[in-house]
Amino acid sequence: MDHIIDLDRYPLHMPHSADWEALVAQCKAGLARDGLFNLPGFMQPTALADVLEHVHPRMETESFHHRRAHNIYFKDAVEGLAPDDPALKKVETANHTLCHDQMRGTALDHLYLWPEFATFLAAVMDKPQLFTMDDALAGLNVLEYRPGEALNWHFDRSIFTTTLLLQEASAGGHFEYVKDLRSEDDPNHAGIADLLEGRIAPTTLIQSAGTLNVFLGLNTAHRVSTVGPGTSRIVAVLSHYDSPGRAFTAEEQMGFFGRVA
Prior knowledge:
The protein is an alpha+beta fold and about 260 residues long. It has a single domain (about 20-255), classed as q2cbj1_9rhob like domain (Jelly Rolls). The protein contains 6 helices and 13 strands. Strands 1-10-7-12-5-3-2 form a 7-stranded antiparallel β-sheet, with helices on both faces.
């Protein structure tokens, strides 16, 4: 894996060594403080270049163009909110997607299926074990946001999300978030309305290509801002769960990927 990951900086291949434990502790501290952590330069430059060489032509000819209007909850109705409540303001998300079956044999595929990667993430998340998805399409996805496209405001369904930035946008395309905008005890509909109306300024996360990011998005509102002219933003999403056998339904596959495995 040393040709894919900078193992000198990030010794994922040596679980429970002193350096590995120090990295896990560093990542846990970032999650506790910021709700996220970044590992810059995680992917080796040559591996990153090889992945992009694989991705670019396939994005042009094989990707699914996903576009939808939605509210921050991705729900048609929310208990306690009238249909015209400002917390239910519609926004638009648009991107192009490649699925796991289109990334087989690449460095991303090897990383996603590498047991030590799941072992590291499990340790950071204080889980006994994490598993890759049992799904030919989901699990590993590559998303491109072209000029005029964005991933708009939302909350995640999973506790944490793992991404690897493959290509930075020339303009825009920044990851923005408002930490702990809601909680289990307080849905904070008024605060969500303030965010959607522009009365709350989000935190902007500046990343470089090759950076691994783990983010706690269940109660933290976040988005990728609209990409401007020039180079698109390309990011890989690598999904793990604390139980085996997870897969999308046929309806979810069709909605996210435009086809069913």
